[in-house]
Design a protein that fits this description.
358 residues, globular, two-stranded antiparallel sheet, single chain, mainly alpha
Length: 358
């Protein structure tokens, strides 16, 4: 019986992808030219708005051309249609890539007067941002974020574990609702509420004294300890939810089987539970660590302005000093430092998936 050989399909859209890439680069180049020309007019922050308005249709048009070029040849029926991803890609380009490019251009500009910059290529802003004073502030922020993340893991992992394994099934939704209940109100209000909770006049201070845990009223406000408490409280739900989602999918019969084969509870947890929940643990850790590195509301309120994080320095550079060039350079350096942790997250996630199938 003769078997008909299917003729090989030509590579779909090879030239179209090259054309699409060229169109995208051309659109980016035109956007940069428009930006620099608007900046030379000296109209302050107006170029940001004008740039967004002008380049958004440009990116939309370029995306349509890329879509048409990439579909010049017939694609496989199972190929993912670019049309479905195009709205999110357009939003991403308009509200992340363009502002990020604007930040990079400001970072190498030269500050001129109050709130004005001269566009060019000046690395003096980065030299100023690498002053030992700002490095010390960054290390203080890094230390507080690392300690806060560790405390959240120590508090959040047992909580998520208990809800996923031991809580009655009909009440798990209630417990999860209690975890996310603080998110029903403003982040600012939640932080301000701790001015009352940590106040020496609040009943918590008298209660701790009556138990003999403290010898005097609480004087914790405007200290790093108050900031640490605020960080753990505000970011704990962001860690618990992804970890609970991972724990909920676990097959607990594996742990029971390990116990039946003679493994201790700690060995079963370390060899099975911890490995299978590693993706949720890594994701939750990243979700709380990175926002902590950029935090400035909690240090400002609970630290009373006496304990600066790197976010406070950037906020003052933009809003008080109106030094957009220095603030942008500092922000770019912080983003570059945080990129290391994102790369580490991607590496650990890929390794976990390949080794443990989690």
């Amino acid at each position: 019986m003769a078997v008909a050989e299917a003729s090989p399909r030509p590579a779909a859209g090879g030239g179209g992808r090259v054309l699409g890439a060229a169109i995208g680069l051309a659109a980016l180049l035109i956007a940069i030219v428009i930006y620099t020309q608007l900046g030379s007019l000296g109209v302050g922050l107006a170029p940001a708005v004008v740039l967004l308005v002008v380049t958004l249709p440009m990116f939309l048009a370029a995306g349509l051309l890329i879509h048409r070029a990439s579909h010049a040849r017939e694609r496989e029926h199972s190929a993912y249609p670019l049309t479905l991803a195009f709205p999110s890609l357009s939003f991403y380009a308009a509200f992340f890539l363009i502002p990020l490019g604007y930040l990079l251009v400001f970072a190498v500009a030269t500050p001129v007067g109050f709130g004005e910059v001269a566009y060019g290529f000046d690395l003096g802003n980065f030299s100023q941002a690498l002053d030992p004073l700002y490095i010390e502030v960054f290390l203080r922020t890094l230390r507080a974020a690392a300690i806060g993340t560790l405390l959240i893991i120590l508090v959040g992992y047992p909580l998520a574990y208990w809800i996923a394994r031991y809580a009655p099934e009909r009440r798990r939704g209630l417990f999860l609702m209690l975890v996310i209940l603080p998110f029903w109100t403003s982040f600012l209000i939640r932080t301000y509420s701790f001015l009352i909770v940590l106040s020496p006049e609040f009943f918590l201070s008298d209660w701790l004294q009556s138990l003999g845990l403290t010898s005097s009223p609480l004087h914790i406000l405007n200290t790093p300890s108050a900031i640490q408490i605020g960080l753990v409280y505000n970011y704990l739900p962001l860690f618990v939810l992804p970890l609970y989602a991972t724990l909920e999918r676990m097959d607990w019969r594996l742990v029971d089987a390990a116990s039946d084969l003679g493994a201790t509870q700690w060995t079963a947890f370390r060899q099975i539970t911890l490995r299978l929940t590693a993706p949720g643990l890594i994701t939750g850790t990243l979700l709380v660590f990175i926002p902590m590195m950029g935090e400035y509301v909690i240090p400002l309120i609970l630290g009373g302005g006496r304990v600066d994080f790197i976010g406070n320095v950037i906020q003052r550079a933009f809003l008080e000093q109106q030094d957009y060039a220095f603030g942008s350079a500092l922000a770019v350096l912080v983003m570059s430092a945080l990129s290391f942790f994102v790369i580490l997250y991607l590496y650990l996630s890929t390794r976990t998936e390949s080794e443990f199938g989690a």
